[in-house]
Write a structure and sequence with these properties.
It is a single chain. The protein is of the alpha/beta class and 570 residues long. The chain has 19 helices and 22 strands. The radius of gyration is 27 Å and the shape is globular. The two termini are 36 Å apart. A hairpin with a 5-residue loop joins β1 (15-16) and β2 (22-23). Strands 6-5-4-7-19 form a 5-stranded parallel beta sheet, sandwiched between helices. It has a 5-stranded parallel beta sheet with strand order 9-17-10-11-12. Strands 13, 14, 15 and 16 form a 4-stranded antiparallel beta sheet that branches.
Length: 570
Amino acid sequence: MLELKKVKKPLKTQLNTGGGMSQSPFRPKYVEKKPPCMDTCPNGTRVRDYIQYIAQSESYDRPIDDSLTEAFYLLTESNPLPSTTGRVCPHPCEEGCNRKYKDKSVAINAIEMFVGDYGIKNNLQFKKLNDAPRKEKIAVVGSGPAGLSAAYHLALRGYKVTVYEKFPEVGGYLRYGIPRFRLPLDIIAAEAKRIENLGVEIKTGVNIGADITMGQLKSDYDAVFIAIGTHEPIKMKMKGADSPNVYTGIEFLQKAASGEIKDAGKEVVVIGSDSAMDAGMVAKRLGANVTFIYNKGTVNDASEIEEKGSAEVKEGNAEGIKFEFLFALDEIITENGKATGVRLKKMKLSEKDASGRVHPIIIEGGQELNLKLDTLIYSFGQKPDYKGLENLAKNENNEFLKVNEKYQVANEDKVFAGGDILRFGLVTDAIGMGRYAAYAIHEKLSGETIKKDERAVIKFGDAVNREGKNMYIAYFQETERHARTSRDASVRVKDFDGILNNLNLDDLILEAKRCMSCGMCFDCGSCFEYCSQSAVKKLPKGQHFEFHLETCNGCKKCAESCPCGYIDMV
């Protein structure tokens, strides 16, 4: 069990009123704050709340299964795909975690994956917010993370939702853009099925424009949500790029996912940065020797991989993918209509520009690299495919749809949009856009406004208490972070099974207890113990404490000793 310690710290000098008793004009007030993990999550997930429910299971004498069940429902209030995001989200919530000022951030991604998987294993189903169905019908175009999220949040509120997906199977980019060793197909299927069980109808193999027009959707439905993602690759115009064995990264992943590509040959060359690594790792599992031409500029030598490399680069390196750094493609060599090799020229990083950035530039007369290949894969970005949606308003400077702050498409009365069709982002970003667009649709159709979370964010070091720091993290002991492990690289490269191992239950509980409950009481009792004026009264378990200010002299001891910053002096 995580041990906590209380360390007295110097208390600030109080005003002396001349009556022999120190006084202050300030008085304590319990004020719940928004934790930074929730604030930095694009989807606004109640991270602190579901983790604390697990962490406090023992102190409330709750069976751990009851706590995990409630944690699942707290988590899925905003995110219907927790097993998915627990695997593929880079978790910006951990970047905001105040625990990093003590030792290391809480392993939120590992906890989320465990709770999400617990929900699947125990067949936990979603609960509608009301039983009365609404008469309005909503069409969702695209069954990726944004589309599934919007469908979920609308179905919770009683709307009849139909999802249209052009691919043969549900999941959109989750299924056809992320390899199954990162995101197993049974996870996608289980999380989509749980949304279907709310009454959502998912129709696959439907092309908007060919099978049903946008005009029909607007006529048949009260609102339409567009979430088609960015499945259209940006292609090279270099001679030889149209060879049948040359693929963009997304093309290769889609064809491998559908079973169209089962053999990439003996030698595969991949050109790109972190996002292209998935294609290289798929090719490796198909039996190829893979050479990765890495041009991001953050890693310039194999010796820097472990120190500076992204998670994707480290994984590829562990699996035996060969790296060449800072080479630019100069020519695709072809024979009999197929690519057989590439010639590359060495680059170097430029001096910093006005923004402080460096850029790879070719070294004139520098080293050349010639590689033979059976398959060439490159990844230079993607864009939306607007077939059937050509008349929707686009931004002036890019390929993305133009929407207002309510995710409503410009010049459209009932069309909304979200996900990568608005901007490239994380899976959790797309889930958040689907959620908030669903709120906007609900507000438009029902007239009900969904209250915004306007609580102040508590960040260690911010002086919201008028004096000093608003969290007393000396209360907590340094503890080891319980991170997930990965399957051994020499084993996992032989199959497409999931890379990540789940935490065991004991480690899950220990990791949950590392959460400092930023901004919300967890019954540590410091305010009660440090108050010498009997101004703090204990309440029944779960109700925490309350102030009786008639005896308070404003000494600030309660606020200064509060580990989670729940007390303001006002």
